[in-house]
């Protein structure tokens, strides 16, 4: 399992051609208390850089983009009843959706954990 | 992101907010804390304890001179002449068409009539007031004063320990107090729906006063985020969002601010339009909404009855005390009856709304003469 990061503060954990997507701890800390998450349904097609999910904090709505192109295999149903999971465990139980990658070479343009940490430190 | 050519001003408590973990944003031209530990926690703390808000961005104006109350009545629709010393009133600065230029508090103070106006429009307000008041009325913009609000059910206990005597004030009453050698002007008022106080303090003493209040176990600092969710739950409109120059007091559901004598006599800007709207009903009206499901409906969302747009959301968000989304907006009057089912368009998706009476959370003001 390899974890990559985007400059829009999504993470993607890849295992072969399947992957899990969520938002980073930095993203959840910036958003604050999360009160609603809309994740894509199983079977939905998402495109790299396109809208994939919506996350709403007390204060504002934000789009979550797909880090890569693929087909959604599962949205995290636990976020319906407990959206605050994204605050408490953003890079674990607070995942957004799983997908099958269409083009694994798209991962090449993403950051590894060390690069992402340096990126956030520079913000 | 703020643009580089906009100068963001610093308030007297700016560094104090940073030292207390405030996340600063630009608001009304000033660097202000949006939150400290989190909007939800700060909101709930204020409803249960006491929240300390820095509202020093607001304009504090002192109007003095003979006939100041009568002069004010030419620009606002309230009965200012009837205001006894130490009493205050919510009022509206109106343009010639009866549109709302700002909402404000007016207090009859010993040194004159004391006004608190919104920070984002205070310079326009000052220009408007100067233009419309006679020359013999003096307007002093009290830039040497900061303004704190202490709000919540335990605000009275915390503040009375620091400034004994404030507990004797009732809602919408104000007076002079000394804190050591510092002259304070304190009112029992606020904009959260809770009991609480607003404290005008000399700028050089505001850090020490904020520290003295923070030393009380009931008190935590509260940012702009929770200030917004608290006032929304209380059904209170925010100028620049729920009210603007296109809205008259009747549309804004603020008819209570047009005093009985003024309704009979008129003589305030836009009087004809406003009295007509009072008699015949306005074309559209500010109402509250409960929202179906969990997704907040926010400012700017169009409101539909079937396929026809009949209004727009002007404030909306998640209500921490209710744990559901709530909203405020304008609808054409035929759709303003509580219980009316409507829909909001949120990114192409329809979300059910129901018109509801406000406030969403009962006000807990401590009124003179009210049963305990």
Description of the structure:
The complex is a heterodimer of chains A (123) and B (372). By secondary structure, chain A is α+β, with helices and mostly antiparallel strands. Helix content of chain A is 20%, strand content 37%. In chain A, the strands form two sheets. Chain A has a six-stranded antiparallel β-sheet with strand order 1-2-3-9-8-5. A three-stranded antiparallel β-sheet of chain A has the order 4-6-7. Chain B contains nine helices and 19 strands. A six-stranded mixed β-sheet of chain B has the order 10-11-12-9-3-13. In chain B, strands 14-17-16-15-18-19 form a six-stranded antiparallel beta barrel. In chain B, strands 5-6-7-4-8 form a five-stranded antiparallel β-sheet, with helices on one face. Classes of the chains: A alpha+beta (123), B alpha+beta (372). The A-B interface holds A 32-33, 35-36, 38, 54, 56-61, 80, 83 and B 34-35, 38-41, 43, 225, 228-229, 294-296, 298, 317-318, 320, 325, 347.
Topology, element by element:
The complex is a heterodimer of chains A (123) and B (372).
Chain A: E1 2-5, E2 10-15, E3 18-23, H1 25-31, E4 34-38, E5 45-46, E6 51-57, E7 61-65, E8 70-75, H2 78-81, H3 85-88, E9 97-101, H4 113-121
Antiparallel strand pairs in A: 1-2, 2-3, 3-9, 4-6, 5-8, 6-7, 8-9
Chain B: H1 14-19, E1 23-27, E2 30-35, H2 39-48, E3 50-54, E4 59-64, H3 68-72, E5 88-94, E6 100-109, E7 112-117, H4 122-132, E8 138-141, E9 145-151, H5 155-162, E10 174-179, E11 182-187, E12 196-202, H6 206-214, E13 219-221, H7 224-233, H8 260-265, H9 271-280, E14 284-291, E15 302-305, E16 308-319, E17 324-332, E18 341-346, E19 349-356
Parallel strand pairs in B: 3-13
Antiparallel strand pairs in B: 1-2, 3-9, 4-7, 4-8, 5-6, 6-7, 9-12, 10-11, 11-12, 14-17, 14-19, 15-16, 15-18, 16-17, 18-19
Helix pairs in contact in B: 2-7
């Amino acid at each position: 399992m390899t974890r990559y990061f985007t400059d829009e503060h999504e993470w993607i954990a890849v295992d072969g051609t399947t992957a899990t997507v969520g938002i980073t701890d930095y993203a959840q800390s910036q958003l604050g208390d999360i009160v609603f998450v809309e994740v894509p349904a199983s079977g939905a097609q998402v495109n790299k850089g396109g809208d994939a999910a919506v996350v709403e904090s007390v204060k504002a709505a934000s789009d979550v983009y797909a880090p890569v192109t693929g087909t959604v295999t599962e949205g995290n149903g636990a976020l319906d009843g407990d959206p605050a999971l994204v605050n408490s465990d953003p890079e674990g139980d607070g995942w957004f959706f799983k997908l099958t990658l269409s083009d694994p070479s798209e991962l090449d343009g993403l950051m590894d954990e060390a690069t992402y940490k340096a990126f956030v430190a520079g913000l | 992101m703020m643009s580089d050519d906009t100068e963001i001003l610093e308030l007297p408590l700016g560094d104090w907010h940073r030292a207390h973990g405030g996340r600063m944003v630009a608001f009304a031209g000033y660097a202000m804390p949006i939150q400290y530990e989190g909007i939800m926690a700060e909101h709930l703390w204020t409803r249960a304890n006491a929240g300390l808000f820095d509202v020093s961005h607001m304009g504090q104006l002192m109007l003095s001179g003979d006939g100041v109350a009568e002069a004010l009545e030419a620009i606002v629709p309230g009965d200012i002449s009837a205001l006894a010393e130490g009493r205050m009133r919510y009022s509206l600065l109106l343009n010639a068409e009866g549109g709302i230029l700002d909402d404000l508090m007016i207090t009859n103070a010993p040194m004159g009539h004391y006004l608190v106006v919104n920070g984002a429009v205070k310079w326009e307000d000052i220009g408007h007031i100067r233009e419309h008041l006679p020359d013999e009325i003096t307007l002093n913009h009290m830039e040497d004063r900061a303004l704190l609000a202490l709000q919540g059910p335990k605000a009275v206990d915390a503040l009375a320990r620091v400034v004994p005597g404030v507990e004797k004030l009732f809602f919408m009453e104000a007076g002079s107090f000394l804190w050591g050698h510092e002259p304070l002007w304190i009112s029992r008022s606020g904009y959260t729906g809770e009991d609480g106080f607003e404290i005008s303090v000399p700028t050089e003493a505001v850090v020490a006063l904020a520290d003295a209040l923070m030393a009380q176990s009931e008190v935590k600092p509260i940012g702009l985020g929770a200030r917004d969710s608290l006032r929304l739950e209380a059904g209170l409109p925010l100028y620049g969002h729920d009210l603007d120059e296109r809205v008259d007091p009747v549309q804004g559901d603020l008819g209570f601010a047009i005093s009985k004598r003024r309704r009979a006599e008129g003589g305030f800007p836009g009087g004809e339009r406003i009295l007509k709207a009072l008699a015949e009903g306005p074309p559209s009206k500010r109402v509250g909404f409960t929202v179906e499901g969990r997704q907040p409906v926010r400012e700017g969302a169009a409101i539909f009855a079937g396929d026809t747009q009949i209004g727009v959301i002007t404030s909306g968000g998640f209500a921490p005390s209710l744990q559901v989304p709530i909203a405020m907006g304008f609808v054409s009057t035929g759709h303003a009856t509580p219980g009316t089912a409507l829909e909001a368009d949120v990114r192409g998706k329809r979300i059910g709304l129901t018109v509801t009476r406000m406030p969403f959370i009962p006000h807990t003001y401590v009124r003179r003469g009210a049963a305990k």
